[in-house]
Write a structure and sequence with these properties.
This protein is mainly alpha-helical and 140 residues long. Helices cover 71% and strands 3% of the residues. The longest helix is centred in the C-terminal third of the chain and has 30 residues, at 80-109. The mean pLDDT is 86.
Length: 140
């Protein structure tokens, strides 16, 4: 239980987003039309579902590795926090794409999608994770 607490403490947001990323990536590999049949259809105009699923999967695994390595040293360097900071910044870029798709849909339909505030906060949450990891020089 102590080990589980160590890995989760202060990093719940990252763990939850990592699980969601991997879950969506697998679902998109199985059924690529998921994005085309949702409010995120605008994203597929710029990126293919396969590309998005690949990015989600790669970033999800990289983030998972960063979370597991957090606090451990590899060749005398703490790589976990840096992996977490980089993946958080890259995830923020990806979440902006989803957020902009919802903004585009909102403009088209004439009213805001209820998902806009959530995806905007995901972006800010990721940027906060990246900032805290780098600013503290250790795990938050």
């Amino acid at each position: 239980m102590r080990l589980l607490h160590y890995y989760l403490e202060g990093r719940r947001f990252e763990w939850l987003i990592t699980i969601a990323m991997l879950w969506l990536a697998v679902a998109m590999f199985v059924s690529p039309q998921i994005l085309r049949a949702s409010a995120f259809q605008w994203v597929t105009l710029v990126m293919t579902p396969w590309f998005i699923a690949s990015c989600l999967f790669a970033l999800g695994w990289a983030r998972l590795i960063g979370l597991l390595l957090n606090g451990h040293e590899v060749r005398g360097r703490r790589v976990g926090p840096m992996v977490r900071a980089v993946t958080a910044a890259l995830c923020a870029v990806m979440w902006v794409q989803f957020d902009l798709a919802l903004v585009q849909m909102s403009i088209t339909q004439g009213f805001m999608s209820p998902g806009v505030p959530f995806w905007s906060m995901f972006v800010l949450g990721e940027l906060d994770v990246a900032y805290r990891v780098v600013a503290n020089g250790r795990s938050p």
